[in-house]
Design brief:
Elements (H helix, E strand, L loop, with lengths): L5 H11 L2 H8 L6 H8 L4 E3 L14 E3 L2 E3 L3 E3 L13 H11 L2 E4 L7 H7 L4 E6 L5 H13 L5 E4 L9 H5 L4 H5 L16 H4 L11 H7 L4 E6 L2 H9 L4 E4 L13 H12 L4 E5 L5 H9 L4 E4 L1 H10 L1 H22 L12 E3 L3
Parallel strand pairs: 4-11, 5-6, 6-7, 7-8, 8-9, 9-10, 10-11
Antiparallel strand pairs: 1-12, 2-3
Length: 354
C-alpha cells in the first residue's frame, strides 16, 4: 500500500523501530499536553478560500535569510538520525538538497559536519547550537560550521535543562551513552575529544547577555529557536538577531506552554516585520503550512515527520515526506486562490467556533 500522507509514514515507522527508539523520537515532556496541542491547534483554524482566480500557475518558491528555497517547508534540527537509518544525517542532507529546502543540522547529530557537507555539497544548511557548558567548545562549533559553509546559526534558547521525558525514563535511556553517538561534538582530533560527562550537561548560565558574545564570533545571521512570547520577541529585536523560530521543542521541554501556531501571531506582532519569523511544531498537512504562513511565518520546519521518512526509506523516504507536503501545500494554495507566497495573508483564515 502506498504511503500518501505524513501519518502513513508515522504508522510504518512505528512498526519498524524498536520501542525505545520510537519512544525517543516521539516522546514528550511530562503529560504530553503541548505535543498534542501542537497538532490540535491547527484544526481550530479554518480556511477562507477565494475563487474565480486564475490559478493555472502556482509558485511555492520563497526565500529565507536571502536564500532561495523551493517551498516554505524545511527540516528542523533533531538528534541522532542514525537511530532511524544507518547513514543518519547524510541521508537527510541529500534529501534536503534534492528537494531544494533548508536543513538545520543538530548539535547532537550522529554524523560529523564534514561528512554532512560532503554528502550534499550544494544544499542549504543552517547549524543549530545547543549551548554547551564549555564556552571554548561553543566557539569552535560556531566557527567550524561557518567555515564549512553553513548559512545561519540557530541558537536553541529553551534548553537550560532537559525536560522530563517519561518514556525515556521508563525505557532507561542513557543520555550519556547517546551523547557518545554525537559526532559533531567530538573534535576531529580524537586526542581532544570532549568527555561525555561534560556534554551530557546543558548550559543553564546562558542568557541574553551572551548574545553579543555569539555575534562577535560569526558573521552568520543568528536565529533564536524557542521564543514563544511577545516579551522575548521584543528582546530578540533589541539584541539585533536576524530571526525567530517559534517553537516549543515539539512539546519535549516545558509542558503546558502554548502550541506553536497559537504563539505565532503574538511573536509576529511583536517583531513588526523587523526580522523573519519561522515555526515548527505540529505541521502535518499542506493546509497546516498555509495556516502558518497566513499568520505570518516565513517558513515552517518539520521535525518528527522527517525521522519517520528516514526510518521507512532512508533518503528516499525523507524526499517523499517533503514532496508530499509540498504537493499538498501547492494544492492548498490553488484551492484558496493563491498564486504565490506573497498572496497568502491573514484574510485566508478564521478561528473555528468548534
Amino acid at each position: 500500500m502506498p504511503l500518501v500522507c505524513l501519518t502513513d509514514f508515522q504508522a510504518q515507522a512505528r512498526e519498524r523501530l524498536p520501542k525505545a527508539s520510537w519512544d525517543f523520537i516521539e516522546g514528550a515532556a511530562d503529560e504530553g499536553i503541548t505535543m498534542r496541542d501542537n497538532m490540535a491547534a491547527f484544526k481550530k483554524i479554518r480556511l477562507r478560500p477565494r475563487y474565480l482566480k486564475d490559478v493555472s500557475q502556482v509558485d511555492t518558491g520563497t526565500t529565507i535569510q536571502g536564500e532561495a528555497i523551493s517551498a516554505p517547508i524545511c527540516i528542523a534540527p533533531t538528534a541522532l538520525h542514525c537511530i532511524a537509518w544507518p547513514d543518519g544525517e547524510m541521508s537527510t542532507a541529500r534529501a534536503a538538497q534534492a528537494a531544494g529546502v533548508c536543513y538545520i543540522t543538530s548539535t547532537y547529530a550522529s554524523c560529523t559536519l564534514e561528512d554532512i557537507v560532503a554528502s550534499a555539497p550544494s544544499g542549504l544548511r543552517w547549524f543549530q547550537l545547543l549551548v554547551q557548558p564549555d564556552w571554548q567548545l561553543n566557539k569552535q562549533l560556531i566557527q567550524r560550521a561557518e567555515s564549512l559553509g553553513f548559512k545561519a546559526l540557530v541558537v536553541s534558547v529553551d534548553v537550560p535543562v532537559i525536560g522530563k521525558r517519561r518514556d525515556d525514563l521508563r525505557n532507561q535511556i542513557d543520555l550519556k551513552a547517546n551523547i557518545k553517538l554525537c559526532k559533531i561534538l567530538q573534535s576531529p582530533d580524537e586526542a581532544k575529544a570532549v568527555p561525555s560527562s561534560l556534554l551530557a550537561a546543558m548550559n543553564a548560565f546562558f542568557c541574553w547577555d551572551h548574545i553579543p558574545w555569539l555575534q562577535s564570533l560569526t558573521r552568520l545571521p543568528i536565529i533564536l529557536k524557542g521564543i514563544l512570547t511577545r516579551e522575548d520577541a521584543e528582546l530578540a529585536v533589541k539584541h539585533n538577531v536576524q530571526g525567530i523560530l517559534v517553537s516549543n521543542h515539539g512539546g519535549r521541554q516545558l509542558d503546558e506552554v502554548p502550541a506553536s501556531i497559537d504563539a505565532l501571531a503574538e511573536v509576529v506582532a511583536a517583531v513588526q516585520g523587523r526580522m523573519e519569523v519561522y515555526l515548527d511544531g505540529g505541521v502535518r498537512t499542506g493546509n497546516d503550512v498555509l495556516k502558518a504562513l497566513a499568520l505570518g511565518a516565513k517558513c515552517i520546519f518539520l521535525g518528527r515527520p522527517i525521522l519517520w521518512g528516514l526510518t521507512c526509506k532512508g533518503e528516499k523516504g525523507v524526499e517523499e515526506v517533503l514532496n508530499i507536503l509540498k504537493e499538498e501545500f501547492r494544492t492548498s494554495m490553488t484551492l484558496t486562490g493563491c498564486r504565490s507566497i506573497a498572496e497568502i495573508n491573514r484574510d485566508l483564515i478564521q478561528l473555528s467556533r468548534l
